[in-house]
Amino acid sequence: MRPVELQIEDVAFGGKGVGRTEGKVVFVPYTIAGERVATRITREKKQFAEAELAAVLEESPERTTPKCPYFGRCGGCSYQHMKYKHQLQVKQKQVENALRRIGRLNTPVQTIVSSPQEYGYRNRITVHADGGRVGYYRRDVHELIDVEHCPIAAPEVNQALTELRSRAPRDGHYTLRARSGPRVFAQTNDGAAEALAQIVERLLPTGHHLLVDAYCGSGFFTKRLAARFERVVGIEWDRLAVATAEQNAGANETYIAGDADLEVNRALAGVDLGTTSAIVDPPATGLSAGTRNALLEHPVHTLVYVSCNPATLARDLAVLQAQFTLLSATPLDMFPQTAEIECVAHLCSKAD
Ligand SMILES: C[S@@+](CC[C@H](N)C(=O)[O-])C[C@H]1O[C@@H](n2cnc3c(N)ncnc32)[C@H](O)[C@@H]1O
Fold it and tell me: Which pLDDT score is estimated for 262?
């Protein structure tokens, strides 16, 4: 492993610091822009190299002490070494860069919305048990770290972890939850999810005929907005999530168990687009081609795109520009201490 000293210039999406040696970009985790660091190159490719941090030679004033004894080994968190305000600045810049470089969009990005809790926010975690150890796998290596306490998890979740560990569980995966509920997608940080829901509510108009909520899960957004629309249609391919949404559905709520790739087009065909809004909240891979095309073919009056990946968001927005104007993009910190970024984009049809 070749030792190299680097000046960290930036922090890339994904959480690694970026330095340069002999004209080549080197990615180093757990570093901060402005720091001078000693590293060891662990992987060398034609275009870039990966290195591990050996020592911080000149420390950034944004550096702080991580709360977790497993930080740097566990792989779940990337930013515990940064003060929280700086984490927010890093994420803000990453969204701006993605929209500008990938999407070629110059729309100003709103100030990132912080999480009400910096630690102790996760309402569920999945841990693994193997050969007497209970914890998380390291990100790059198949090695299970024995974890007694996870500082980003809620106290109830840590209590469940303590109980699980005390009964020496059989090998396997265990999802520990702050409260019981169906095994379907659910927002992980309650405080930040409330802020997210409020942003989405604020961006959607009132008095519209129809809301199509694609990738709706068990109706997190659909249900909050049902009273504002004559009709709401949720589209979700997880049947259990759809069944959960249907359990307490009002008369104007319809849930379709199917692939957004086909169903968005069906839901929008023949409707009055001038009084129709849509929400899309896809997984990190972003919109499928079918969903993007459906939106281009049926440009709804207002479109709110909730994204957990700025790169795929930027790619999709670049395509959607053919029929939509991007009014705003608002990043939100759903996962403090980690490199994940949530972002809400507000678009309106160019036809209006
Ligand atoms: C990021 S989650 C959002 C869920 C929901 N909006 C919420 O806030 O709880 C994405 C959801 O999309 C669903 N999904 C992923 N790909 C899909 C597809 N092609 N068609 C329909 N649903 C899909 C997943 O099952 C998951 O529930």
Answer: 97
Cα-trace Rg, the chain: 22
Of 3.40.50.880, 3.40.50.150, 2.102.10.10, 3.50.50.60, the CATH number of 100-114+186-349 is: 3.40.50.150
Fold of the 1-62 domain: OB fold (Dihydrolipoamide Acetyltransferase, E2P) (2.40.50)
User: Given ligand 1 and candidates 123, 183, 185, which is best to mutate, with the most ligand atoms within 8 Å of its CB?
Assistant: 185
Confidence at residue 183, expressed as pLDDT on a 0 to 100 scale: 76
The pocket around ligand 1, CB under 6 angstroms, is made up of: 185-187, 215-217, 220-221, 235-238, 241, 259-261, 281, 283, 288
Cα-to-centroid distance, 138 and ligand 1 (Å): 27
- In whole angstroms, give the CA distance from residue 186 to residue 1: 42
Instruction: Taking the CA atoms of 244, 245, 251 and 256 in sequence, report the sign of the dihedral they define.
Output: negative
Taking the chain (352 residues) in consecutive chunks of 10 residues, what is each chunk's mean pLDDT? 93 96 95 98 94 97 97 92 98 97 93 98 96 87 91 97 95 92 83 98 94 97 96 97 95 98 97 97 97 98 98 98 97 98 98 77
**What DSSP string runs through 201-258?**
HHHSPSS-SEEEEES-TTTHHHHHHGGGSSEEEEEES-HHHHHHHHHT--TTEEEEES
Residue nearest to atom 27 of ligand 1 (CA): 217
Q: Residue 342: exposed, middle, or buried by beta-carbon count in 10 A (0-12, 13-18, 19+)? A: buried
Structure confidence at residue 342 (pLDDT): 98
The reported pLDDT for the residue numbered 352 is: 67
Separation between Cα atoms, residue 203 and residue 277, nearest integer Å: 10
The pLDDT value given to residue 185: 77
